[in-house]
Amino acid sequence: xxxxxxxxxxxxxxxxxxxxxxxxxxxxxxxxRQKVEVSFSGIMCITCRFVNTGLITLLEEFDFDxxxxxxxxxxxxKQINTLINKxxxxxxxxxxx
Length: 97
Prior knowledge:
52% of the residues lie in helices and 12% in strands. With 97 residues, it is α/β, with parallel strands linked by helices.
């Protein structure tokens, strides 16, 4: 079964505390080897800080392949996709663009 997290359900203004909660939820799901979809439905943009805290922090505990295997970003737009992809690419490969 795939779990789904709707960012808009628990995000106030996409602040750092909200991103920490996202990271904790994702960490729990990955540890349990569960797949999770992260829906950005209704969210127009996010900050680099939110991505760093909510997603990139996962690299401290899991390798990138585990994250890709268990976490799927859905209902997102180009700004969100580009930011997430660039941040992971930089952290994993050291590539800036």
